[in-house]
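Contributing new records

If you add data, match the layout below exactly. Sequence lines come first and carry their own label; structure lines follow with theirs. Keep one chain per record. Anything else will be rejected by the validation script.
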Amino acid sequence: MEKEIIWTKDAPGSAAWEAGSSAFSQAVRAAGLVFVSGQGPFDPASGAMVGTTIGEQTRQCLANVEAILRAAGSSLENVVNATFFLRHSADFAGMNEEWVRWFPEDPPARQGAQHPRDIEGLRIAIAVIALA
């Protein structure tokens, strides 16, 4: 079984990845699935954090996930599992309000956790697994 590394300039990345020395891939396609690394609310072009509210940041995370899935030949409709990492548990309701806009029907299985790092201003990151 082979794996394919997925990378797109339409989602946040790093110059290190382009040089082949990044510690992780945006996504990996293997075994008929696409595994998308945790995506924060960062602008693909500038790398700057987008938004201050949980809704704005959730929207940007999902836009980044969507761009990576598109580069892999998949889509949000094919997401079967998602993990969200919240900095503050009080943000759950706001995150969920935005979430249902992106997954209005047949939502993926999902679990949440507290984000392990205290990054100034970061409220959420999202990782997914989708059908390829």
